Automatic annotation (TrEMBL):
<dbReference type="Pfam" id="PF00057">
    <property type="entry name" value="Ldl_recept_a"/>
</dbReference>
<protein>
    <submittedName>
        <fullName>Uncharacterized protein</fullName>
    </submittedName>
</protein>
<keyword id="KW-0812">Transmembrane</keyword>
<keyword id="KW-1133">Transmembrane helix</keyword>
<dbReference type="GO" id="GO:0016020">
    <property type="term" value="C:membrane"/>
</dbReference>
<dbReference type="InterPro" id="IPR036055">
    <property type="entry name" value="LDL_receptor-like_sf"/>
</dbReference>
<feature type="disulfide bond">
    <location>
        <begin position="422"/>
        <end position="437"/>
    </location>
</feature>
<feature type="transmembrane region" description="Helical">
    <location>
        <begin position="723"/>
        <end position="741"/>
    </location>
</feature>
<feature type="transmembrane region" description="Helical">
    <location>
        <begin position="791"/>
        <end position="815"/>
    </location>
</feature>
<feature type="domain" description="Neurotransmitter-gated ion-channel transmembrane">
    <location>
        <begin position="664"/>
        <end position="750"/>
    </location>
</feature>
<dbReference type="InterPro" id="IPR013320">
    <property type="entry name" value="ConA-like_dom_sf"/>
</dbReference>
<dbReference type="InterPro" id="IPR001759">
    <property type="entry name" value="PTX_dom"/>
</dbReference>
<keyword id="KW-1015">Disulfide bond</keyword>
<dbReference type="Pfam" id="PF00354">
    <property type="entry name" value="Pentaxin"/>
</dbReference>
<dbReference type="GO" id="GO:0004888">
    <property type="term" value="F:transmembrane signaling receptor activity"/>
</dbReference>
<feature type="disulfide bond">
    <location>
        <begin position="403"/>
        <end position="415"/>
    </location>
</feature>
<dbReference type="InterPro" id="IPR036719">
    <property type="entry name" value="Neuro-gated_channel_TM_sf"/>
</dbReference>
Amino acid sequence: MWFLWCDASSVVWVLILVYATVVRFQEDGLATTTSMLDTGNGVMPSLSQVTVCARYRLIHSGEDDNPILSYFSGSDNELFLAVDFSKQVIKLHCCNFLVADTFDVEVKLYQWHHVCVSLHHHASSNNNNDNNHHRVVLVHDDSFLERELVVRERLKVRGGGRLVMGQDIDSLEGSGNIRQAMHGDVADFVIYPQALDSDFLRSYVKCGQLEIEKVVPIISFDTNMTTFKVLGSTTVSKINLDEGDLDSGQWLVLPEKKLLGWSKLAPGYDKVKPSQQCASVGGLDFPLDWFTTPCDYLTCPLCTFLYTPKFRVRGLCSRSIIDQTLYLRDYKNGKVQFHGPYYTVIEWDLQNMTWKLASRKDEDLNGYIMLERPGEMPVGVHTWVISGDNCLATKMDVLITVCNGDQYTCNDGTCIMKGQRCNLEVDCPDLSDELGCQNVQVPAGYSVDMPPPKEQDRPIPVRLFVEITSVREMNIIGFKMVLDIIIRLYWQDGRLIMKNLRADMQSNKVHGHEKIWMPQLQVEDGLRSLADMLPRAEVMLVQRQGRSIPDDPTRLNEDDLYLGSENTLLLQQVYSVAFTCQFNLHFYPFDSQVCSLAFTLVDVSPSFVILLQDADGMAFTGHKMLLEYEVTTFNMTPYITAYTSGQRVWLELRNLSGYYISNTYTPTLLLVIICYLTLFFDIADFTDRVMVSLTSLLVIAALFSQTSATIPKTAYLKLIDLWFVFLMVMEFVIVVVLVIVENLRLKKHRVGTPNKVTIISISNKFTSDRWQHRDPIGKEVNKSAFNTNRLAIIVLPVLMTSFIIGYAVFILTLIP
């Protein structure tokens, strides 16, 4: 008896099933693609509506999903029901992908879940599209999901296909995918040819009483599991064997339960016994007959070929008379024979314990393998000693492979995809896929000093691209710049052969590129002086552009070869370049500077190789905002002379004048304004007026001296020098005005008489009376002094404002 407990809301249902069946996939705990139930072909009929129900429990989850059932008939996933634990969904596919939907559910490991899904056509209010409307109902534990589907044609599950459980198959003969392999239990699995109603689906998932006497499942877990083949590490529990055909002594062909139409079992081993209910074929130690054996008896698998296995032979010379195709044909001396389509035969030689080669036509043609390990098969790469062939060599490496054109053969005969060749990951058991991975082949007679030959009497183009990654240093005082640049040179060399090129250029790194001709560049600054080049890194890559050339069976390895004339070499060099830039500082600090570098080819005439720009020619990928300047524009232009071919890189930088505006222009302007304000002081207060003015003048002079020390010294006046000179002149004028005003003011108080009488002394009484009856201050000021001071108050701001406006307008004309 088997008890299945279901928790349905607040009611606990107990369903007691007699002889129920539980299937455990991957019983040994190992993730494999062989653990499954398989109906074989032809069990499933065509269906226009279907209901699938199952109870499942996940022990582990596959990376992609956990197939409960996978049915193939004419297309992948003709009927597919799987649990995706990572996304918490149920996947449902049907009918040549007319239905491909997911349903959000809650799935937990180690816990029983119950699912029922029905799919059928239903009537629609729109009669024109009635055949296209379908309904899917899915019940999963407490979740009830219903969806309406409108598809391009009426749904139909095509019959006659193959149904497996626990794995996902993509063809009639296909096996599973390790990412789609179920580790867990499935019980009470049924497929009905009708779309059962929602009450039935709910009752099933809640373990209720099912009243379906008139509905018979087409596939289910019956007591004998006669519908399925149990494959791999799969166990079936609670199977009743009493209803088998042991008493009849007859053999049945599963799953149809048809009697076996022939009986060629070995005498004495042809009767069914309680302990021997299965049959196995004998191996090499026994005649190739069938024997009754226990069902748990471990045997080697039988191979069924839909076609005769075909092997290819590589590495022979083009004039060889050995067949370059072999087939498995027969057995001799306990091992298989390889027969060519014409005359070649390869078989096991018991006397010498090696594989020998012979010809049915040429008796002189003989060969044998120099085996490294006793008893190994001749597939893979082996050293053969051959005589009587048309090839000059008698000892050569030969590859015998069964791999197809999209695969690469390891030295031991293992097949891997060509994309796994030289991918920096070991995929062959013997590690041979990462050997001989030089992707550029240099032919004999190749000269590294000679450029590629011209095509149609035209020079070979070398395309240049310069990437400026940073401005490492910009020394205004020393007129020096240091740039970090990446130089990329593209060209094609028709003398070379490339192999195993990838679409990703970074995977096509050329090793030992010093053996290949490379364009040599000379870099000059704007004064035609050589720049100092400090190399940082260098790498050569191949950019795949053309298709691989046809395969040549005379080559041992199955590498894809490409012509050098159709695929581009890329030389990438990283440099720090130090050069001189002739700065023009007339408009400093509102200046813009232009620096240039000329790249030219050396040691080659422009009639053979010409340097062109690639795309835009250059890019600036670094930070454009420097400490004092900002990179504004950059471009590349041709630079061609009578003897060289090159390109010139231009870099324009604009001064970030904000520092000088805030630290020089604004303070000095304020100082001039302070000096000007002394004109509003009391005319009689000459000491304060002149002291403030002189202090302001001295501060401006100090600022001028300090600023001049931090910028280049030039024979000409810079814009900032003009500013300081004007301000100092303005302050000097103000000081002069103060002196003049004071001189005019003092004329009224000079001591003396018109008749030249000399005053010897003045009594204290006269002085006291004179002080007590003096005129108020300011009423007796010299009018000339007053008018001069007022004129300065009016004229000086006009001059200052006019200068500042003109200065600002001029600066604005300099800024783009």
